[in-house]
Structures are given as C-alpha cells and as structure tokens.
Design a protein that fits this description.
The protein has helices at residues 2-7, 23-28, 52-56, 71-78, 97-107, 153-163, 173-178, 182-192, 194-200, 213-232, 240-248, 255-260, 277-280, 282-296, 302-315, 319-322, 336-345, 352-356, 359-366; strands spanning 13-15, 30-34, 40-44, 47-49, 61-64, 87-90, 115-119, 124-130, 133-139, 143-148, 167-169. With 367 residues, it is an alpha/beta fold. Strands 5-6-7-10-11 form a 5-stranded mixed beta sheet, sandwiched between helices. Helix 4 (71-78) runs parallel beside helix 5 and helix 14 (282-296) packs antiparallel against helix 15 (302-315).
Length: 367
C-alpha cells in the first residue's frame, strides 16, 4: 500500500517498529512494486522510520496495515501523538478491530478527536517479494469500510475515496467485522492443510490446490456460522459466495467452484510454515471474537470452536485467552441495543434526538 500510494504521487511515510525490517527500504528510499501485468514501478517514500512520532507528524490519513495481533500495540504507540482531525483506518480490522483500537486509545488517555475506521478486508491480493519489493496480484473491485461511530463514515470517505475509490460505505463496523472473510478462508485452509504445509514448506497454491471438495465443505459450514452470528446482531452479512462475486467477479455453484474461478488467487502460494498469521492472527482476532459474540447471543458455533481448539493444540497456545474478547472490544455486559447504539452513534445510550422524539418525552415536556 505504501509503494502503491507513493507511486501514484502521494506523500507517504512508512513505519515499522523493527528498524532492520525496513532498513533496505530506507536505504533505497522506497519500494519496488510489481503488478499482475508484470509492470514495475517505484514508490519513493518521504519518511521510513521506527520512530512513530516522526511518522505520524503532519499526516492526515493513517493506514494501519498490520496483522490484527498488532492493533493494540499500534494503538498504544499512536495514542500520545494523535491529534484532532486525523483518520486511522485498519486495513483490515478483522473482527472488532475498530472497537478494540478505540478502547485501547481510551485506556491510554488519548483525547484527540480522531476518526477510527476499519476496512472489511485488505484492498489487495499481494505478497512481499523481498525486503524492498512487493507484488500486487489483484485489486478487489470494492471494499466496504465503516467508521466508529457510523455517523463519521462519510467524513472518513471524503478523504479515503480520493485515495482509493474502491472503498465504499458499510452501515457500521459490525458489518465490516462480520463480513470478515479472512475468518473463513485463512485458518480453515491452513489448519486442514497442515500436513501438506509442513511437508512441502508451502510449495503449493494455497487457494487452488489447498481448496478440495472436503476443505471447501468445511469453509461453507464456518461461513454459515458467521452469517448466523451476524444475523443475531441484526447484520445481513454476505455469504462467502456473494463476497467472491463482489470482490473478484468469481462465481460458482459452491465455494469449491467459486474459489477455483478466481484468477486473483492464482499464483498465491501457501504459508511456508504453520507459524503464520493465517493462524496466529485469524484464529484469535477473527474467529474468537465471532465465537464470543455468538455465545453471547445464543448461536451454536461448534465448527468455529473446533478450528480454534485445533489451532490451540498445534501452536500449544490458548487462543481463547489471548484472543479478542468482549472485554477487549469494550462490549462486556452490553445488550444488543447498546452495542448497536455504540457502533452507530458512539455511545451505548440512545441518541438524544431519538429520546426526545418519543411520546413519553413529549408528555414530560408538556406537563
């Protein structure tokens, strides 16, 4: 994203907390970018630094493009230096990213009036090719995005859509979080292809060879649970089939056919090991919060639970303990109405105008 923006003429700063990870980029002054048509461009960067204060200084749009496992750390690092009017967009938020980011800023005492938003997914199908080189295989047709609260989504899009017109408004962050397709595709395919990944060190096409009739059937069960949890929260979530058609124009009678119909997935290789973000990110920060919400509102999520427990065994980590919980999202004890008010209006209380418009309020004023 940094290379793409810079190559299109935007002034871009790049931050990474580990200096050696960006040293080659700093020395070269930017990133070499390769497109699906084998075009090569160079994105020159203004600032490349592990000093987040320096990187945030004077910028309007802050694109957080890191695994969700780093969202809390990034929020803590940003908190002292954010200023009024800045926009922070999580690309993507996974499940509950904006809620967790907001809570962390509040816990850190940040008082800056910033807009926090989250994208439903990453705009690109992409991979790093080297320390200062990346490739974009495909850009998604559209990516829904929402601000927290939703009343600020239009203000965010005034800036964001100029940079990437593919971003379109979602009703609120429950929609972006519960249309998180990484929760469906990433952990299931990584875990069910675990033996193959370890044996070949990822020498197969992840979304092609790794998607068989059986693995696709598990994807469909996980997807149904996700859609059901969304419905319990009043969200009409896209099915994975609908999402593939909207994002990539890939179609089929089932997920097996649709994923194999997606040219954007061709050439993307499997992880080289099981110590990969498809598990350590998407299990605790995509599946766990969906399961938490499902259990809170009475949805059976046995298939997601089975994937989480399998990941716990393989990594020897309690992802339920380390994952994104109702507490870390600031949702503990909240009713559905209170959660809805929070994501739409920024407060668990009903909007004042709505209260004042009720018959009881009118009677009180008259009396």
């Amino acid at each position: 994203m940094a290379a793409d923006l810079a190559a299109r003429g935007y002034r871009v700063n790049l931050y990474n907390r580990t200096p050696e990870h960006i040293e080659a980029i700093r020395v070269r002054g930017g990133i070499e970018l390769q497109f699906e048509e084998d075009q090569h461009v160079f994105g020159p960067l203004e600032v490349v630094s592990s000093n987040i204060e320096k990187v945030l200084d004077g910028v309007q749009l802050i694109m957080v493009v890191v695994p969700a496992s780093a969202h809390t750390d990034i929020a803590q690092l940003c908190a002292p230096y954010l200023v009024d009017g800045q926009i922070v967009v999580l690309n993507p938020g996974r499940t509950g990213g904006a809620l967790a980011f907001r809570k962390t800023l509040l816990d850190c005492g940040c008082t800056a009036d910033v807009i926090i938003g989250e994208a439903e997914t990453l705009l690109f199908a992409s991979r790093a090719l080297g320390p200062a080189e990346a490739r974009i295989f495909r850009r998604k047709n559209t990516v829904p995005v929402a601000a927290l609260p939703a009343t600020r989504t239009n203000a965010m899009l005034e800036v964001l859509s100029e940079v990437y017109p593919q971003f379109v408004a979602a009703p609120n962050v429950l929609y972006t979080s519960l249309n998180n397709m990484g929760a469906v595709f990433h952990p299931v395919l990584a875990l069910l292809n675990a033996g193959w990944i370890e044996r070949t060190q990822g020498d197969f096409q992840f979304y092609m060879d790794g998607v068989t009739q059986s693995t696709a059937q598990m994807l469909e069960v996980i997807d149904r649970e996700r859609v059901t949890v969304a419905a319990a929260l009043g969200v009409r979530a896209q099915t994975a089939l609908e999402w593939l058609a909207a994002a990539y124009s890939a179609t089929g009678d089932n997920l097996y056919e649709a994923m194999h119909d997606n040219p954007g997935y061709r050439g993307i290789m499997a992880p080289r090991s099981l110590r990969h973000r498809y598990i350590f990110e998407d299990v605790p920060f995509s599946l766990v919060p969906i399961v938490e919400l499902g259990r809170r509102f009475g949805v059976n999520v046995w298939a997601m639970d089975s994937m989480i427990r399998l990941a716990c065994v393989i990594h020897r980590i309690d992802y339920y303990h380390r994952g994104r919980t109702l507490e870390s999202m600031g949702l503990t004890g909240l009713s559905l109405g209170e959660i809805t008010n929070l994501v739409n209006h920024g407060s668990i209380d009903p909007p004042r105008a709505e209260f004042e418009g009720s018959s009881s309020a009118k009677e009180e004023v008259i009396s």
